Amino acid sequence: MENEILKNIKSRRSIRAYNDRQVADTDLNMILDAAVNAPSGMNYQTWHFTAIQNKEKLVELNRHIKSAFAKSEDKHLQERGHSETYCCYYHAPTLVVVSNESTQWWAAMDCACAIENMFLTATSLGLASCWINQLGTTCDDPEVRAYITSLGVPENHKVFGCVAIGYAADNATLKEKVLKENTITIVR
Prior knowledge:
Elements: H1 4-11, H2 25-36, E1 48-52, H3 55-70, H4 75-82, E2 94-101, H5 107-124, E3 128-132, H6 134-138, H7 142-151, E4 157-166
Antiparallel strand pairs: 1-2, 2-4, 3-4
Helix pairs in contact: 2-5, 3-4, 3-7
């Protein structure tokens, strides 16, 4: 019999298509509880989690990110910035912004642990999720920074990732996970 936690880990996938059904408050609270209970360096817990469920604010956030992309020297990002249809959070009804004090050298690792806890909790609740990086690469753009600060992201924080959460759309594709060989070495 397979361990329930391992089954949950193996069943989690990144979903990039969501329906409009909002995440229930009780489910969001469990997901955020899992985040704050993740390990953190020296147990400092310097992170912050900003959950956005307001559709208009999410659309505005996407607009600011696209504006930052449009100013980029990277051609791929410029294309996203000028696209009418690009949505960095895949229209998920909930987005959790995960930030931390950039002066802590373990800040990114703390945030990654919290994000994984959120993914696994969402999966256990029948919710879909996906890691969103775009805000991490644009959070220092003045327009983006002003907007995320207005949403509650602390000014002295860097965004290390976001978690899109919702119910998978009927047309969401689930990729089969194929594990690479020779990625484990055991020294006894």
